[in-house]
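QA checklist item 7 of 12: single-chain prediction sanity check.
[x] sequence parsed
[x] length recorded as 179
[x] structure emitted
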Amino acid sequence: MLEAAQKLFAAGCYPEIGVAQILEHAGVQAPTLYHHFGDKEGLFVFWAEQALGRIGEAIQRVVSAGLPAKDAICAYGMATLAQLDFDVQQLLRDASRLARPESRDRVTAAYMRAVYEPLATLLVQAVATRELRNEPIRDLADTFLGGLLSLRRDEEDVEMKANHAAWWCEAYVRAFRVA
């Protein structure tokens, strides 16, 4: 079922994906979905937490490596893009439309824990060491993620993904470095 969720949710918009479509791709009957996940929303939340968790694991290895701030930000970008096989912005839009507040909160918390907070930590370090200008961290993080997440996540060539991430990181650091 998770493979079907990955394929469908990563490629489409949550409201447009029906339970019948999920069941067909998974090759299971409805009781299996309802037993394990409660409903389509439960499956979506579980998939989102797992997908964001994979990205978070790669990011944590970068954050804990003790690299200088600029190098760590670039490594963060490369690690994130390398793991990205879905549209994070679409996932967050879909999460905001879920019926249950606790479902929305779980997906948002998974995103914050896996993606946003590690970046904010790196940016705080970069500002503290004067590698980046003293700007509001939220603005720095939103700008970085906006650019990074707009890069081609569907690129199959890992080296090309790394080149895209490296280009964006260099452009970002140049734009926000201390003059």
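[x] summary fact logged: DSSP finds nine helices and no strands in the chain.
[ ] second reviewer sign-off
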